[in-house]
Structure formats: structure tokens, C-alpha cells
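[Q] Does anyone have a clean C-alpha cell version of this?
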Amino acid sequence: MGLFNFKFKYTRAQLEIFRFSFCLLAPVAVMYYIGTDTDKKLNVPGFWPDPATLNQIPKEPYEIKAELARMKKERLEKRLRLEKKIQEEFGLDLEEEKEKIRRDLALKKG
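[A] Here you go.
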């Protein structure tokens, strides 16, 4: 006769205890597995951008003034570039158009 030659039957109580312990311990085991060494398991290289490439918010007053000056300069350069493009492509004189709009607004007010 072999060593494991006996027949073993589960009773209903043993089955319920097994089901209860499985339902209780399976989520705990999954959470434990996920929770340990997450840097190795769930790491996606290059997901977060390099902090050096992000916009740096100015915090000091002189930095804020310098940033505002840079933004105004960019806006003025863009406006001048667009005005030049309009004059070249459509042949419109922007000063005349501005005067027409001012006159129209003055007539509507008065």
C-alpha cells in the first residue's frame, strides 16, 4: 500500500471555509503583489517628461517682469509680421482701415 492511498472527502463545512478564505485572501494577495516593487512592475520609461524641458513658472518679481517683457515682444513681432503679410497679400493699408472703424464707431455712438 502506498503512503497516500486513503480517500479524502470534503465536507460541506470544509468547502465553505475554503471558499470564504479564498474570497478573503485572493484580493489581499493581489494587492500585496501589486503593492510590492511597483517601480519595477509598473514602470513605463519616458512616461513623465524631463523636468528640464517643462515650462518654469517665474516666482521672483524680476523674473515675472522679464517674462512679461518677452511675451510682449513676441506678441508685437507676431503682430508686425501679420500686418506686413496683410499689406503684401491684400494690399490693404491698415491705418486707413483703423480710421474707418473709428469713424464708424463714432457715428454709432453719436
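[Q] Thanks! Anything notable?
[A] The chain has a mean pLDDT of 88.
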